[in-house]
Amino acid sequence: MDRVNALLSFIYTMLLHDIRSSLETVGLDPAVGFLHRDRPGRMSLALDLMEEMRPFFADRLVLSLINTNQINGKNFSVTESGSVLMNDAGRKTVVAAYQRRKQDVITHPYLNEKMHIGIMFHSQAILFARFLRGDIDGYPAYIWR
According to the 3-state scheme, what is the secondary structure of 84-127? Predict the structure, then answer.
């Protein structure tokens, strides 16, 4: 019901799809989760893995878009029912910023390799699959520093 939450929701949805694709690529069912309860149509495992990506990727992107005034009140409209909708120009700006953010390079703390953030989603899915299959003793969650 407000602009910031509409922006967060849009970015979370794109992130969920990227995480879901990464899980499916490594042979995991994105609907069978551990933290999020299984429900028909809910990507519980994708939501689980998304939790570690939200603060450093999605939330940080939202703050950046707002602080640099790339997204502002002109990018939203409010319906009679009070719902907040992002307009086409706003969505275009957000999608472009999302894709640019995925190109940023980080050093993965467990693998100790430099990689694009977009590849890191896939790396975390691989690590989770390896943990489930017993190849590694614990799942090294990505913790942003």
Answer: EEECHHHHHHHHHHHHHHHCCEEECCCCCCEEEHHHHHHHHHHH
Q: What is the pLDDT of residues 46-69, one digit of tens each?
A: 999 999 999 989 999 999 999 999
Distance in angstroms (rounded) separating the CA atoms of residues 125 and 131 = 10
Q: 3-state DSSP call for residue 78?
A: strand
Single out the residue of 73, 23, 81, 82 nearest to residue 47, CA to CA.
23
Of 34, 70, 73, nearest in space to 52 by CA: 34
Q: Which domains does the chain have, with CATH numbers?
A: 3-132 (1.20.120.920)
On whether the pTM is more than 0.85, the answer is: yes
* Residue in the block written with tokens 């990227």: 18
- Spatial separation of the C-alpha atoms in residues 86 and 19, rounded to whole Å: 23
